[in-house]
Amino acid sequence: MSSSERPINPRFAEDVHFNQVGSGPSRYKRRTDKPVRYLTVVDKESGAVLGYVWACDEDDAAAWVSRSDAGGRGLAEGGHWHTRLQDAKGRGIPPSQALAELSSSESNRGRVLPGSLADAPNSDAVKALAASDS
């Protein structure tokens, strides 16, 4: 050690450990094998399907699924719908109520397609729909 260097404070030389407090933001489960209801979200300008937002009260589950052929636009759109779902969960409302609130929602690029509320056997079915070509 040169004369200009200061010695390291021994209490800072130890590894630092953090204890996590709480479990972070409230979130619905992102998968369920129970029946779900879903809404179709389309691009405001072109009408192309960007993805689907789905919900299931039985498993306290809800999520956004981006349409595979929507590319980056669908992924970016997911941020809006994910935030809305997280906010609804934080307010303690059931997934079906969150979906009802979202039925008249818009983002900068997308909007819920009117009359698009539909049923699916589970969340994997919505994911399969999102993965299929239009």
TrEMBL record:
State the superkingdom.
Bacteria
Q: Where is this region: Disordered?
A: 1-30, 72-134
Question: Where are stretches of biased composition, namely Low complexity?
Answer: 94-107
* Protein name listed in UniProt: Uncharacterized protein
Q: Cite the source lineage.
A: Bacteria, Bacillati, Actinomycetota, Actinomycetes, Kitasatosporales
